[in-house]
């Protein structure tokens, strides 16, 4: 019973993702949407601060809980259906379904635009869950993306304007 739950939740640790160039590329591209956002929606980070509770929540708590629930439990449940493991445009049907639920969950405390913005990172997190058959790369990626979001948002907000 223990190994069935461990496997279906993706909790068996397989360090293969630590040797995966795609994994490191996924981390490296995290700032790109934030750079684009700064030009498309100046002021997106108004009211953002990096207190201890915020850092803990965004970089540790939320990635751990959300990945256990979405990539561990939900995507793991979907993957029990053979059809859900089939790929379409690089991603499994289980990943697409999980991403829809992930986006919907973000509608509770974010605008529709912000909730939709988590779709691409969610697909990446699910991709690495599928690729390495565990949730640890998803947790690390989620924490990295949230840390980048927090750091970029607070650093940009506090930056001095040029010439001022």
Automatic annotation (TrEMBL):
InterPro entries: Rce1/LyrA-like_dom. Its EC number is 3.4.-.-. One of its GO terms (molecular function) is peptidase activity. This is JDVT-CTERM system glutamic-type intramembrane protease. Keywords: Hydrolase, Membrane, Protease, Transmembrane, Transmembrane helix. Residues 53-147 form the CAAX prenyl protease 2/Lysostaphin resistance protein A-like domain. The chain crosses the membrane at residues 21-41, 47-65, 86-105, 111-128. GO terms for biological process: proteolysis.
